[in-house]
Amino acid sequence: MRPVAQLLHNKFVVVLGSSFQRSVYKDLVLILQRDAYLSLSQLKTKGEFSFEQDCLVEGGRLGQMNNGTAYREVRQYRTNHHLIRFYFVTQVFSRYMESILADFEQGIKPDLVVVNSCLWDISRYSREWASEYKENLNKFFRKLKTLLPEESLVVWNMTMPLGKKIVGGFLVPEIQHMGPTLRFDVIEANYFGATLANHFGFNVLDLHFQFRFSLQHRMQDGVHWNSVAHRKITCLLLEHVAQAWGVELPKLDQINADTHPPLRENHSWQTATSSAPARYQGSYSNQRCFYPPVMPATNYNYGPVWTQGQRMRQFNGFGSRYSNDDLPPHSTGYQSFEREAFYRGANNSAAAPYWPVNNLVMKQKRRKPQNRERQHPYRY
């Protein structure tokens, strides 16, 4: 079994975020199946009915395609021993995010949550974004702390470096004036996100630092990154997860050799990592639409099946095991939102049956125990 498939064997992985995180999800799905890079079309396409045998559960081409804050896209890749789910979010805490967290509360708990929400938060909702963003980060991290079990691993991906000039669909006319300064705002927002995630005991993967000397892999729109960069991100993420779970993996060079097909262009990642400051050491296009193949509605890890159009139960506040004394000093407490009913995949009948050491990241001081008892009922 390949190292990636072995590491994520019988694991439920959730990826939360915008288009960048969607590419993180896609590369994970791809690397589990074959040795290949994402194509340019796969990187650019959003909301397709199926990508590499995954399934569109909600939103995307099942709804209205747009570049607004109301855009939704929920995807899922599932095999007998792997379950990876992606939610497209534009704000780190909102009524929609509450519905996603309600999925975790009612259903099976994820073993790994990979999350980033920054660029939309600081550009689409308010010019004075800092205070609102910090408060939303507090709400999100506190709710995660309440809902997830002790052994669940949460990795906060810091936002990658932006270009001086941003073009494309993200920079709608309403926020074009923010283009020249967004790259500086991202640095400040990264500080907020990393600091709070670390405070709550979550892991932080500093992708901004990792790719500061690899800007040749950033796309022309100034926001997104190419397939080579995303394979590097996948390797860093898996390395980090393996360390947290206490699993021994081949060195990064060996993982690269196993999962990277030959490249025509010359590239080296040593430049990006050889000059790490001492303080970091040891501290931390439109695609043809088609319906996906039908898969059996089996329960994953003995958990309930995520059924089509399933209504999510409303929830109130936090569980009793999380004390207000554990909150950051500048927290202002939980503010409930107006309740709405949310449905998962209610419009998609085709998806009905589905449901070496990396020292350049901040990481939790203690490892997350790997739950080796969680076994899928349909084992080989």
Number of strands: 9
Proportion of residues in helical segments: 25-40%
Strand-pairing-aware structural class = alpha/beta
Give the DSSP E fraction (strand runs of 2 or more residues). Answer: 5-15%
> In oligomeric terms, what are we looking at?
single chain
Mean pLDDT across residues: 75
Distance between the termini: 12 Å
**Unreliably modeled segments:** 257-343, 349-365, 375-380
Please work out how many helical segments DSSP would assign.
Answer: 10
The main sheet comes to: 7 strands, mixed
Strand arrangement, major sheet = 2-3-4-1-5-6-7
Order of helices and strands: HEHHEEEHEHEHEHHHHEE
- Gross morphology: globular
Q: What does this protein look like?
A:
The chain has 380 residues and is of the alpha/beta class. The protein has ten helices and nine strands. The chain has helices spanning 3-7, 19-31, 40-44, 95-106, 129-147, 182-199, 207-210, 227-245, 252-259, 270-273, and strands at residues 11-17, 55-59, 73-78, 82-88, 112-115, 153-157, 203-205, 310-311, 343-344. Strands 2-3-4-1-5-6-7 form a seven-stranded mixed beta sheet, with helices on both faces. Strands 8-9 form a two-stranded antiparallel ribbon. α2 (19-31) crosses α8 (227-245) and α5 (129-147) packs parallel to α6. The protein is globular, with a radius of gyration of 20 Å. Residues 257-343, 349-365 and 375-380 have low confidence and may be disordered.
